[in-house]
């Protein structure tokens, strides 16, 4: 059964919450989706506008952090 995961962006001071989230069959697939989202942000140039020191925090619906990716 699919679970919902959220990919929040934070620089330690500001957090951009992913309120909608994405469905994935398990945490491993959610992590692959997170890495794909980071690539899309890089390719589109959106990360350049944020500046340095940002991370993507992958959390499940209970709010448990499952993984943190540095996305500089």
Give the tally of β-strands.
5
Q: Which regions have little confidence, pLDDT < 50, spanning 5+ residues?
A: none
Question: How many separate helices?
Answer: 2
- Along the chain, the helix and strand elements come as EEEHHEE
What is the oligomer described by this structure? single chain
Which class do the helix and strand fractions yield? alpha+beta
Average pLDDT metric: 93
Major sheet description: 5 strands, antiparallel
Radius of gyration: 12 Å
Q: Give the amount of beta strand, in percent.
A: 25-35%
Shape descriptor reads: globular
Proportion of residues in helical segments: 25-40%
- Distance between the terminal alpha carbons, to the nearest Å? 33 Å
Task: Give a verbal description of the structure.
- A hairpin with a 4-residue loop joins strand 1 and strand 2.
- It is globular, with a radius of gyration of 12 Å.
- The mean pLDDT is 93.
- Helix content is 32%, strand content 35%.
- With 72 residues, the protein is of the alpha+beta class.
Outline of the structure:
With 72 residues, the protein is of the alpha+beta class. 32% of the residues lie in helices and 35% in strands.
Which key phrases capture this entry?
single chain; 72 residues; five-stranded antiparallel beta sheet; 32% helix; globular
Secondary structure elements and their pairing?
Blueprint: E1 3-10, E2 15-16, E3 22-24, H1 27-44, H2 46-50, E4 55-60, E5 65-70
Antiparallel strand pairs: 1-2, 1-3, 1-4, 4-5
